[in-house]
Amino acid sequence: MIKKGLLTILATLLILYPLVLALSKGSNIIKSVLCIGLGTILLLYTYSSKHAMLHKFLECVIVGIAAYLLLILPIRIWSGSISCAMEFFVAFALTYLFCCRGEKNGMKPVMSFYAVVISLLFWELPIRAWDFEGSLISFPGFILYLLGAACAWIQFQRRNLLTWGITFLFGIFSLFYAFKGFEYWGNKVIYGTFTGKVERTPLKDYQFLNEKGDTVRLSDWKGKKVLIDCWTKHCGYCYQAMPLVQRLHERYKGGDEVYVTSIFVVYRNEKKEEGAQIVKNEGFSFPVWSIDKTHELLSDLNITGYPCVLLFDEEGCLIFHGSIEGAEELLKEREN
What we know:
Blueprint: H1 2-23, H2 29-47, H3 53-78, H4 80-104, H5 109-130, H6 139-157, H7 161-191, E1 197-202, E2 207-209, E3 215-217, E4 225-231, H8 236-252, E5 258-266, H9 274-281, E6 288-292, H10 296-300, E7 308-312, E8 317-322, H11 324-335
Parallel strand pairs: 4-5, 5-6
Antiparallel strand pairs: 1-8, 2-3, 4-7, 7-8
Helix pairs in contact: 1-2, 2-3, 2-5, 3-4, 3-5, 4-5, 4-6, 4-7, 5-6, 6-7
């Protein structure tokens, strides 16, 4: 009775939470949908018969939701590439575990598969329905999760050379995606090409402000390749890319081949000179230019995701639009 009462209180609080948010004028549609959905699932689980199939099914769904929250989401925030591989193997393990437990409780294996899928859709569906384009970067993880669940279900139903082969191939694919495919997909979603290489494109001689507040132009470095790392203050991935930008800056500074710099994009209430101070506080010394979010460079190249690295040739023509790793590879190719 105590457990039932606590679950009822928790479910009620989750369902009422969106109302509290609305009254405080802090309503968030996605958060509200998730709270109401989880509260409803908990209520159904609490008041269904302990021996009913619905109760056992909802128990699997709740465990799947918790596993996704505790295992997948933190890793996705920390590193999107690794989370994609994790999603395949977590879904496989959960489904197989649920199939084994479900069979003992009289639940068909396919119901275990459905439970894992529903636990995935619980988190994914509201976000993707609200902002599908913005969530495209993590869409392969969604597919790999489904594939992991499907492979486990197939393996549980019938283990033979074919099912082992299918599982092995999808497992290898998930690992490949984590270490290389994620970069290709990210380039395609954010920059429009899988590799970041673009057809040599002449552009305007854009103006920027350097750390001293002076105006600089791309043409000031004519005769050199110019690598520009575009970043924003509130972009976590941007800070992860900074050590590589610094390494390239150290490699090419003082030479006549490549000039490495960065552009601090002012999106909120920051001051333009704040970018240079941030880079200094992070322990780096590469140059920092600054522009406003309305700058024509961003609109001309449709730059909406960060970090975004641009590479210009000696004549000021754009030859690369992608990740810092891709830009480094292209520079190495041009050196050979």
